[in-house]
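Translate sequence into structure tokens.
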Amino acid sequence: MNKLLFLLAFILIAVAATAGPAFAYYEVKNSYYFMKDDGEFSDDEKDQEAMYVYEQCQGNALRAIYFDCACIAGAFRQIRDEDEFIRPQETILQTLFDDDSRGCVNEERIAGQAYLNCSEYAAAMRHRRKDNEEFCECVANDVARKFSDDPRLRSLHIQNLQTNAYSQCNPATREALRIIEERNAKARAK
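Result follows.
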């Protein structure tokens, strides 16, 4: 019995020792990481931080779809240059991803992703319809345009944009809106 317990313990230790290095160690590199302990940001240090921001953006599936990560890194570097005081990275990134995207929205990739999502939806829910390609093109363009107008990287916001686009691009909804617009135009003409 003791031999069996000893063998089991040995196997567990051997497995634990070999499995340990298999896990990647993730090091958070905040703004102060890049200052090299002198309390000042050199241009080289700012460039390193911007490259880190680019890599983090590329590593986040949602950010990489909805934003041009090279543009975000450049905008981050520009803000870092303009700031009088050192702000935390996350504060600048939150500004860029939620309020002030500085033209970094990736409309082409957004439209592509929205088209893919719509195609999957259409295959399941509109499989008998002949206008699915036109419908999904409308949805894709609508989502990309509206996200570009209001670039907030929030799941609920993106979901609302897609849901509204499905409704707006539905031929029945478009026809109803056309009829309402005609009635309103006639009423204004009177």
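Note: The chain has two domains: 31-98, 107-189.
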